[in-house]
Amino acid sequence: MNKKHLSLSVKITILAALVIMISILISTIINIRNEIVNIREYVEMNIMNIAVSISKNTVIIDALEDKDDDTIQKQVNTILTSVENIQFIVVTDMNSIRYSHPYPYNIGKKFKGGDEKRVIETGESYISEAEGTLGKSLRAFYPIFNSTNNQIGFVCVGTLMEIINEVRINSIKSLIFTAIIGLIVGIIGAVLLSKNIKNTLLGLEPHEIVQLYNEKKGMINAIHEGILAVDVNKKITMINQSAINILNINSNPEAIMGMNVVDVVPSTKLIRVLESGNNEYNYEDVFNGTVVVANRVVVKDEEKIIGAIATFRDRTQIIRMAEEITGVKQIVEALRANNHEFMNKLHVILGFIHTKKYDKAEKYILNAAQLQKQIGNIVTRKIKNTTIAALLIGKTSRAKELGINFDIDKKTYLSEETSKYNNDLVTIIGNLLENAFEADLKSNKDEKFVSLKIEDKDEHINIIVKDNGIGIKDEDKDKIFIRGCTTKPNSGGVGLDLTKRSVENMNGKIEVYSKHGKGTTFKIVLYKGEDDDKSSNS
Predict the structure, then answer these.
(1) pTM score > 0.70 for this model?
(2) CATH code of the domain containing 466
(3) Quick one: which of 450, 332, 352 has its CA closest to 402?
(4) Quick check: 477 and 434 in contact, CB under 8 A?
(5) Of the ranges 48-52, 190-194, 325-329, 388-392, which one carries the lowest mean pLDDT score?
(6) Within a domain: residue 319?
(7) Residue 311 CB contacts under 8 Å (≥ 6 apart), including other chains
(8) Angle subtended at Cα 466 by Cα 463 and Cα 468, rounded to the nearest 5 degrees
(9) Which of 52, 115, 461, 493 could be stapled to 128 by a disulfide with Cβ–Cβ 3.0 to 4.6 Å?
C-alpha cells in the first residue's frame, strides 16, 4: 500500500509502534549488556568472598599444615552444600597438590589450569578464567597463610562458564519477554491513542482537513455577506473582506484576527448573543453609518458555548438585489420613465395655458394623445401579454427620454398565454433593453438605436435585442454573465447574471454577437413547457 493512502490512525499506530519498538529495543540491548556485566561481577564477587572465607578457616589451615586431606575435603563439601552457583572449591599446598576436589580421585594430583602461578609466586588474590578438570570456569584465587603469616597454599573457588552462560541466557530471556510484553502494551496504547486522535478530529484524515480548510477560505472569500466570528473571550477568530468593506473598517482581516471585537466594532451585539446563548435572526443594525441586516448565532461544542458568529449584509444591496431578482426594478424604471415623459408634457401644456395660447395647447394635447395611443396600439396589438406590454411602453418612453430610437420589429408577437413566464420574461427583456440603452449612451454616435424582436412560436420564444452602442471587447465576452462584473456605477453587476439564470430556468440558450465600437446583438431562445433532454442540461 502506498504510504500516502494510509489512514491517519494507521500512520499514528505505525509511528507509535516504531518509536516504542526502537525504544524498547535500545533499552533491552542496554539492559542485556548491563545484566551480562552485572552477572559476571556478581559471580566474581561471590567466588572471591567464599575464597576469602575459606582461606581464613582455621580447620582448613590446620589440616593443610598437617597434610590432612580428609579433613579438608569434608570441610569443603560442607561449605559447598551451603552456597549457590559454586561448582568447585579446591585447596592446594605450595606445590599445587590438591587437598580437595569435587571428584575425590583428583585429590593428591596437581592443580590444572596454569593460572595458579601468580598466587603461589606472589601471594596475590585475583580472578581468572581458564580450562580446568571440570571445563572452562571463572575462578577466584586466594592465598592461605598459617598463624606465623607464612603462605602454606591457596584456595581456588570456581563457577563453570557454562553455568554463568545459562544464568545469562535465562536473564536475557526474561528481559526479552518483558520487552515483548512492553511492546504489546505499547502497540495497544498506540492503537487507542490513534483512535482517540481520530475521534478528536471528527474522523477526518489530514488531507480532508486541508481540503476543508481551503474550501472554508474559498467560501469565505467568495460570499458577499460579511462574516464575523468570536470565541468565548470575545476575541475575533474569523472575519472576511466583505465584513471589512461593509463595516468600513480601515484594516485587513489578518491584522484584526485575535483582537477584542469591541475594539473593532464597538456597537456589536455579538457579546449579547454570546452571554445569553440566544440566536438572533434578521436584525437591522447601523454600523459606521451602514444599515445592515444581521444574523447572530452561538457556536456550541455539545452543550458548551465556545463562540458566536454574525453574518450580515448591506440592507441597500439586499433591496437592490431583490428588485433585480423579482423584475420590480424593470417595471419601476418603466413607470418612472412614463411618469417623467407625462410630467414634461404637462409642463408644455401648462406653459401654453399660462401664455393663453389655448389653441396650441389643444393641438398639443390631441397630438400627444394620438401619439401615445399609436404607441399603445402598436405595442398592445403585437404584445398580448399585458405585463410585457406595460414594460415595453415604459421602455419606449425611457428611450425617448434618453434620445434613443427604440424600434419594435413589426413581426414581434407575444401571446397572452406567455404570462406564466412573466418573471423570467420581465428579467430577460428588461435587463437586455437596459443594457442596450446603457451601451448606446456610452457611444459618441449621433444616431443611437435599439431594436427588439420577439417571436412567439409553438414550442419556443425567440428574443433578439440589438444596439449600435460601444460593443464588447473580445477579452470581456467571457465575463459579461459573471455576477459582479459591471461597468455601471452603484450596480451589483447582477443584471446579465440574472438574465442567464432566467434563460436557464426556461431551458433556453443565449448567443452574443458583438464588435467593439460597432454594437451588440443578443439572441435568446426560450423553450416552453417541460423538456427532459434540455432540463437535464440546465
Answers:
(1) no
(2) 3.30.565.10
(3) 450
(4) no
(5) 325-329
(6) no
(7) 225, 226, 227, 228, 294, 295
(8) 175
(9) 115
